[in-house]
Design goal:
The structure is a homodimer of 249-residue chains. The first copy, chain A, has 249 residues and is α+β, with helices and mostly antiparallel strands. Helix content of chain A is 43%, strand content 21%. In chain A, the strands form three sheets. A four-stranded antiparallel sheet of chain A has the order 2-6-4-5. Chain A has a three-stranded antiparallel sheet with strand order 1-7-3. Chain A is globular, with a radius of gyration of 18 Å. At the A-B interface, helix 3 and helix 4 of A face helix 3 and helix 4 of B. Chain A binds a DNA duplex (30 and 30 nucleotides) through helix 7.
DNA sequence: CGGCACGTTGAAGTGACTCAATTCGCGTGG
DNA sequence: CCACGCGAATTGAGTCACTTCAACGTGCCG
């Protein structure tokens, strides 16, 4: 590879392309098309919404750096987090064909995102079916993750529930090239973890202590440390099939 | 309209078209393309799987008549139901781009389904972006329903949870033209309702009695009867936005 | 008539919740 | 430099809703 200087635009598109190709291989023509996409960069402060429940969505975002989460606001004003999105995720394709947001998306920590307008994306998809299929597939994998969340929050006791969630975050981080051998970022407070998994903060705290004392994992300073992957996976009955990660060949 | 006799094939396609157009308007060319789709009809007995976890999906199905459900099989062998699909639903587009099923789909009652092979669908979508978008949108609305299930199963007490689920089924049935003024089909036993909502059968039974005694709803003989929609909606904090049903104009 | 699936009921145990207080780390301002 | 406030994590205690276990009724079908 020549070390030619590249415009920032190229770098953003490089990252985006790599992400999309984690889901489906693209042709050169697809890549060229994707590279023509205009975008805007935004920096989000913690707690800042990207889009809010009730609004009409007109953009999709790519996370350069940081972490976003999707959430419902429930009757008493509390939040129910629905999914966590880390760097290199494209969380918001979900809303591409929806006229009104049924949930909000906010930043959990300071995040740098790339914003694409729907009206810029749609013509590309019309012309390039393969690109269309790739983005579609991203939303289908998201849906598989939603399904797993239903099962996790409905059928597993707190400790296994947290363990399962941590397994998912670790595997997804690794797939995105964001994890070390045995650790990855973990941008949730215990309170938020409770709002994600449908348990009280007290239960989260005690379950985490249980997992710590069993030497399965540790969470501190915004990092998740895996101590015993094998046992963790067993406790959580974690099976990464639902993440539909392409096999290395 | 002339009352000309029509082939069965036309009737199946008529229904399918109507369903797709509930999600997005189609052009005449799209309709023609969709009508060219070859299919097979299958009758499923209760409990019979259409596709099973671990298999490679190669078909999508349209429900002519009956009810299917998506489920995970969890560690102890129990089922966690993920979503319920009624007549006129196209539940299985979810798997169109997935190489392996992360869940199973079974019939809850005897059902008549139409089966389309993926290899027959994909060429159409390549040629007709608009049709592609329509099917994509179906999967996005499914995803919105999954999200709501996360919140429902994680953040609402049993009675409200059941109420919310019933509200959804009623509104979806009505949108599909399957409901009367105040009732619709309800193809779940109490046991299955528990497996759907993540509560024990005893709790389901007592919560249903509570809803009955408050004259909000009644469930019997596979039918759901709405007694007091207004109060039911309030108890469930039900807001149908997430179903993304097109507004009548 | 017997078997079976589904619904219903009672009773007991417990795990998760709420309430409440304490600790810790950190940044701010007196 | 220390007092203070704040968010987050931690701990203890009491309550109660949901679970499990178990029994029984009911309707349907072979």
């Amino acid at each position: 590879m020549a070390n030619a200087p590249r415009k920032q635009s190229d770098i953003v598109h490089d990252h985006l392309l790599k992400t999309v190709e984690r889901y489906m291989p693209l042709t050169l023509a697809d890549e060229t098309a994707l590279r023509s996409l205009k975008y805007q960069i935004r920096v989000l402060e913690p707690q800042e919404d990207v889009v809010s429940q009730g609004e009409r969505p007109d953009v999709s975002v790519y996370i350069m750096n940081g972490a976003l989460a999707r959430y419902h606001t429930v009757a008493n004003g509390d939040r129910q987090f629905l999914s966590l999105h880390i760097s290199k995720d494209l969380p918001d394709v979900q809303a591409l064909f929806l006229k009104i947001m049924d949930h909000s998306v906010c930043a959990l920590i300071q995040s740098e995102i790339v914003v694409f307008r729907h009206e810029a994306i749609l013509p590309l998809l019309t012309k390039r079916p393969n690109l269309c299929f790739a983005l579609w597939r991203i939303t289908l994998v998201d849906a598989a993750i939603f399904r797993q969340a239903i099962t996790n929050n409905s059928a597993r006791p707190p400790e296994a529930r947290i363990a399962h969630f941590c397994c998912e975050i670790f595997v997804r981080s690794r797939d995105a090239g964001l994890a070390s051998e045995d650790s990855c970022g973990f941008p949730l407070t215990q309170t938020q973890l409770g709002q994600m998994l449908g348990v009280s903060i007290v239960t989260v705290n005690r379950a985490l202590q249980g997992l710590r004392s069993k030497r399965l994992l540790d969470v501190r300073d915004g990092q998740l440390f895996i101590k015993n992957w094998r046992s963790l996976v067993r406790l959580a009955s974690f099976d990464d099939t639902y993440l539909h990660i392409a096999q290395e060949s």
